[in-house]
Amino acid sequence: MSIIRHIFSSGKNFGVVIAILALLVVQAYCDLTLPAYTSDIVDVGIMQGGIKNAAPTDIRESSMDGLEAFMTDAEIATVREYYKPSDKTSQGLTAKDALLRRTTDDEDVIAKLDKALATPMMLQALGAQEGQQLDLAKLTAGYRAGAVTKEQLLDVRKEAEKEVGAMGDMAVEQAAVVFVEAEYEAIGMDMGKIQTDYMTETGIMMILYTLVSIGAAIFVCLMASYTAADVSQNLRQRIYNKTLDFSGAEMDKFTAASLITRNTNDIQQIQLAMVMLLRLVLYAPILGAGGVIKVVGTDTGMGWIVIVAVAFLLVVVLTLMKVTMPKFKMLQMLLDKLNLVGREILTGLPVIRAFGREKYEEDRFDKANRELVGAQLFTSRSMSLMMPLMMFIMNLITVSIVWFGAKGVDVGDLQVGDMMAFITYTMQ
Questions:
Q1: Would you say 50 and 44 are in contact if contact means Cβ atoms under 8 Å apart?
Q2: Per-residue model confidence as pLDDT tens digits over 184-225
Q3: Most buried residue, 275, 341, 344, 425, by most Cβ within 10 Å?
Q4: Using one digit for the tens of pLDDT, what is the confidence trace for 136-162?
C-alpha cells in the first residue's frame, strides 16, 4: 500500500497511471478483437468463399420472386424496402434478368434481411441438392396461378424448418450461403475476387489492430518504467535523508549492511515490482475480464471447460505460493547477513590478518553465501514449475476444446473458426 501511496503522491504520476490504464484497455480490446477476425477468415473467408450474409448484395428479380413465395407478408415488406431495381443486368448462364440491389450496409438491417431470407434460401438450396427444385418451382408457379395458397407454401416451409431444426440455425445459414453463391455465379460475379477482397479486407483490419496493440504496449512500458524510476528516486532520497538523522542506537539496531541493502537492492526490487504492477498486474484482470465476456458471448456450450481450467490453475498457483513465500521472506534476511559478513571482513581485514583468522572468515562468508544461494535455488526451482504446469493445463484445455468442439462441428452446431476463437479467448 505504501508503494501505491508513493505512486499517487505526485499529480504527475497519477496522470501517467491513468494514461497507462487507458492504453491497457486499448491493448486488451485489440488483443480480444483479433481472434474474432481469425474466426471470420476461417468461417467466412475460407468455408463460405467470402460471403458474409444471407442477404446478397445483388439478386435476380426471378430469384427474389421464388424466395418471396415462401416468405410472410411482413418479411416481403422488409426485403422490398431495402432491395431496389439495379441498372445492371445479369450475364450469367440464364437469359438476361432484371437485378435487385441491396441499398443498405447497416448491420442491424442486414441482420433482419438475413432472418427473412435465410429459410426460403435454404428451401431452394436443399431442393436443388436433392433434385427437388422442380417441385418447388411447381409450387411457386401454382401459387402465382392461384392453385396453391400462401398458407400451403408456408406449411412447406415449416416442415422444412422442423427437419433441419435439430441441426440448428447454423445449418440454415450454411444452406443460405450455398444459395447466394449459386446466385452470384448465375449473375456472373467473380467468386474468386469476392473471396480475395474479403480476405484482404479482414487481413488489413487484423494488421491495424495488431499495430495499435503494439503501440499501446510500447507506450505502457515506457510510462511504467518512467513512473517506477521516478518513485524509486524519491524513495532512495528519503531513505538516505532519514538514515542521516539516525542516532547511534538506531544505527546499531539496523546495522550499516542492512541500511545499504534497503537503499540499493530493496529499492531496485520495488522499482521492478512497480514496472510489473503497471505493465502486467493491471493488464491481467482487464484481459481476463474481456476474455470471460468473449467466452460467454461465444455460444459453444463449452464454458464448463473454462471453469474447470481456472480451478486447476488456482490450485497450482496457490500451492506454489504457499510453499515458496516463507523462502522469499528469508531471502531478505539472508542477503542482509551476507552483506554484514562481507562488510565486517573488509573493514576488519588488518585485524583478521594479524590474528590469522583468514580461514575462519572464509568459512563464515562461505556459509552465509551458501545459505543465500540455497534459498534462491529453492524459490527459483519451485517457481520454474509454475510455467510447465500452467502450459500443461492450458494444452489439456486446448485438446478438450478441440475434442468436444469437433463433435459440435460434426453435427453443425459449431463452426471451425468459432472453435479457434474460443480456444484463444480461453487461453487469454
A1: yes
A2: 888 888 888 888 998 999 999 999 999 999 999 999 989 888
A3: 425
A4: 666 666 666 666 677 777 777 777 767
